[in-house]
TrEMBL record:
Keyword Signal attributed: yes
Record-linked PROSITE patterns: NEPROSIN_PEP_CD (PS52045)
Entry keyword Cell cycle: no
Name of the featured protein: Neprosin PEP catalytic domain-containing protein
Domain Neprosin PEP catalytic: 155-428, 466-714
Native organism taxonomy: Eukaryota, Viridiplantae, Streptophyta, Embryophyta, Tracheophyta
Organism of origin: Aristolochia fimbriata
Superkingdom, taxonomy of origin: Eukaryota
Keywords, in A-Z order: Signal
Signal peptide: 1-31
Region described as Disordered: spans on this chain: 397-417
Entries under Pfam families matching the protein: Neprosin (PF03080), Neprosin_AP (PF14365)
Length: 714
């Protein structure tokens, strides 16, 4: 047989449009390990072997540092088989295609500027925390723990319990490379799970002699401590047992590119029904050296030396393209875009398009803030609120008919951190900012009818009836019950608890009235709620319901109801400053009060945000019967998220979440300290706590602390 030649037939190209639906109720949290002195010293030595001396270091977003290392002193050459190797700067042969050239339009992922200096290559710096997240030091950088890989190779029926693929695989043959253009998505993944899109080139028996090289994009929080989408490469020469690793996390892959590093994240991803962000990856066998090269778009990234492999040293026998997901415990994460044409019919798609049109009113101006949030400046009289049947003929109330006034030292504080408003002067006069809802927002909801609701329908029934609610839902709150309340105010410090997936964590007050299944409630505070906002930032929110969280009400402007008045402070905006442990405490002051002539108003610091029209409610239309202040967390499956700062209330100022200056409004709209006769509600003391400090003599007045780390609360 003559020398193998790469042709259009052998250089297989796959356009991966991964769209398989997986239920993703994410629950894992990062484990903490206690190290012995010997383990600690072993880790320090391992860090030193991986993190070579840097000529220059480049810090990118999300805390990643790439060290520019002498190209001849990179970790690859610590491999025993590569000790005396000379680096190959370019392939001896390179596949050329005619007509349908390899696209140069791949999504940009390189380092800023010109990248690393000439003669150096970028290598992601490994941290002690990275090593600590691995099951053991020997398994750092591995795709699976050793016992997992043994299951994968020996018992497919067992592995499918925690590991799934959706791939295309041609018959066994002789392959000398593959290329694929794939669109990049950001599936919602947390904890020990991963989700990826990639190709595999493999050879050898499907046991501990399997050779494999792999490349694609992945979301893998346990490796990189975030849920960003990243470029990756992988190799093994013994069926994922002891050899091989991701990227450059062990000696093996040789980096030659000074701009495009393995492990870099994509700052743009595809949008559902919108722009598709693509990358083109090519792996091929250099016919002169038999090294396997990896190319990203038009950039040669580096190569896997031929010496690393046995059966893969001359060709691949199998090529695969597709997706892979993994979860060692519980429900599986999404794959690809997390959507399936099978599950989302054209009828559902059209319904969503109509719903988007009803929520996203024509904009006079649009303002993009951080983390992809867009606020449309909408005619104040044409905002979504007035689509509510009860508000069709309403005229907007431009200011409250009455406003509670405090005297002397009791004035409402104007010191709230105004770190949430829109830039500049906000929206033009006569318009108000409404967060733009996207198709992805709708798709993350359990159903279109449940979009924007705090709980799904069956959850709310459990919440109202008390059945099994403590399995997935917990509170730490102070309650003032069965009185007459016309408003409440609280100053609270803002934290950013670590929350992912379908979980949420919040600090808020509630004003409620009526029996459980007909309960009226208005609520406001701060929240971390990734399934709503598609990030883990802290957002200002408001909520209402008129039927116990059944069919009415929603967050912010996610349904007709709340009327936006402020052109500067939008609901759903994120806080760009949060409190620091033992440091500066960032506070906000929220006030809700019943205008004695009309509606329930919401005030943020000195800014009137808007109001809930009186017509929305039944029992809450004249007063509230109950007021609650505190924290709330939810996780439909698994371990509970942190509340507040993630620390127990006993840790006090600078460490725990608090509410101070907690006030209520009396019938004549005068401020008074929260009632002395209150009840503490705490349903998971193993995970959270709450302490009522009473009325303080300083300017804090009525104060309490709450919060905790979450976890297994049963």
């Amino acid at each position: 047989m003559g020398s193998p030649v790469i042709t259009g037939d052998l250089l297989l190209k796959a356009i991966l449009l991964l769209s398989f639906q997986t239920s993703a109720l994410l629950s894992s949290t990062e484990a903490k390990r206690t190290l012995s002195k010997d383990e600690y010293l072993s880790m320090k030595r391992h860090l030193k072997s991986l993190n070579k001396p840097a000529v220059k270091s480049i810090e990118t977003d999300y805390g990643n540092i790439f060290d520019c290392v002498d190209i001849n002193k990179q970790p690859a050459f610590d491999h025993p088989l590569l000790k005396n190797d000379t680096i190959q700067m370019k392939p001896g042969s390179h596949p050329q295609r005619k007509g349908d050239k390899i696209s140069s339009s791949s999504l940009h992922i390189g380092l800023p500027g010109d990248g690393c200096p000439v003669g150096t290559v970028p290598i992601r710096r490994v941290t002690m925390e990275d090593l600590m997240r691995a099951p053991s030091l020997s398994q750092f950088g591995k795709k699976y723990a050793q016992n997992d890989s043994q299951l994968i190779l020996s018992d497919f029926s067992t592995v499918t319990k925690f590991h799934h693929w959706a791939t295309i695989e041609p018959y066994r043959g002789e392959y000398y490379g593959t290329q694929a253009t794939m669109n990049v998505w950001q599936p919602d993944v947390s904890g020990d799970k991963f989700s990826l899109a990639q190709f595999w080139l493999t050879s050898g028996p499907n046991n501990d002699q399997l050779n494999s090289i792999e490349a694609g994009w992945t979301v893998n929080p346990i490796r990189l401590k975030d849920n960003k989408v990243r470029l990756f490469a992988y190799w093994t020469a013994d069926g994922y047992q002891k050899t091989g690793c991701y990227n450059l996390e062990c000696p093996g892959f040789v980096q030659v590119n000074k701009k495009v590093p393995l492990g870099a994240y994509f700052n743009k991803v595809s949008t559902f029904g919108g722009v598709q962000k693509e990358i083109t990856l090519l792996a091929f066998l250099d016919l002169k050296t038999n090294n396997w090269w990896l190319k990203y778009g038009d950039e040669l990234v580096g190569y896997w030396p031929n010496k690393l492999f046995t059966s893969l040293s001359t060709k691949a026998e199998i090529v695969q393209w597709g997706g892979e997901v993994f979860n060692p415990d519980g429900l599986m994460p999404p794959m690809g875009s997390a959507k399936s044409n099978i599950l989302h019919s054209s009828h559902s798609y059209l319904s969503m398009k109509r719903h988007l049109k009803s929520l996203n009113k024509p904009a006079v101006k649009s303002i993009e803030t951080g983390y992809g949030n867009i606020f449309d400046c909408v005619d104040i009289n044409k905002q979504p609120a007035f689509d509510h049947p009860l508000l069709k003929n309403d005229t907007i109330q431009m200011k409250p008919g009455s406003h509670p006034q405090r005297k002397g030292t009791d004035k409402i504080s104007s010191s709230s951190v105004h770190n949430i408003g829109l830039p500049g002067d906000g929206c033009p006069l006569g318009t108000v900012p409404i967060r733009r809802v996207t198709m992805e927002d709708l798709m993350r909801a359990p159903s279109l009818s449940q979009f924007g609701q705090k709980y799904s329908l069956n959850d709310s029934r459990s919440i109202l009836s008390g059945v099994n609610v403590t399995n997935f839902h917990h509170w730490a709150a102070i309650q003032a019950n069965r009185g007459e309340f016309y408003g409440t105010q609280a100053t609270m410090n803002v934290w950013q608890p670590d929350v992912s997936g379908d979980k949420f964590s919040l600090a808020q007050f509630w004003l409620t009235s009526g029996p459980y299944d007909q309960q009226n409630s208005i609520e406001a505070g701060w929240t971390v709620n990734p399934s709503r906002y598609n990030d883990n930032q802290v957002h200002l929110f408001a909520y209402w319901t008129a039927d116990g969280y059944q069919n009415t009400g929603c967050y912010d402007h996610d349904c007709p109801g709340f009327v936006q008045f402020s052109n500067k402070v939008p609901l759903g905006a994120y806080f760009n400053k949060v409190s620091t442990f033992g440091g500066v405490q960032q506070e906000i002051t929220l006030l809700t009060f019943l205008d004695d002539k009309t509606n329930w108003w919401l005030k943020y610091g000195d800014e009137f945000v808007g109001y809930w029209p009186n017509k929305l409610f039944t029992s809450l239309s004249t007063k509230a019967e109950n007021v609650h202040w505190g924290g709330q967390v939810l996780n439909p499956d698994g371990l509970m998220p942190p509340m507040g700062s993630g620390r127990f209330a006993e840790e006090d100022f600078g460490k725990a979440c608090y509410m101070k200056n907690v006030m209520v409004l009396t019938e004549d709209r005068q401020f008074a300290d929260a009632p002395k006769q209150t009840a503490l509600y705490l349903d998971a003391p193993k995970c959270y706590s709450i302490i009522d400090k009473g009325t303080q003599r300083n300017n804090w007045r009525r104060t309490f602390y709450f919060g905790g780390p979450g976890g297994n609360c049963i």
